[in-house]
Design goal:
alpha+beta, single chain, 34% strand, 2 strands, elongated
Length: 32
């Protein structure tokens, strides 16, 4: 997933989810 997001033109940034967001296995994406 993160490899796909890395080159995507609409993705500003991404990070792993924190405890209140679902924890391990969750990726939070910030779009442009």
């Amino acid at each position: 997933i993160q490899g796909y997001l890395q080159g995507h033109p609409s993705v500003q940034s991404y990070r792993d989810g924190q405890a209140g967001e679902g924890g391990f296995g969750v990726t939070v994406v910030h779009l442009r």
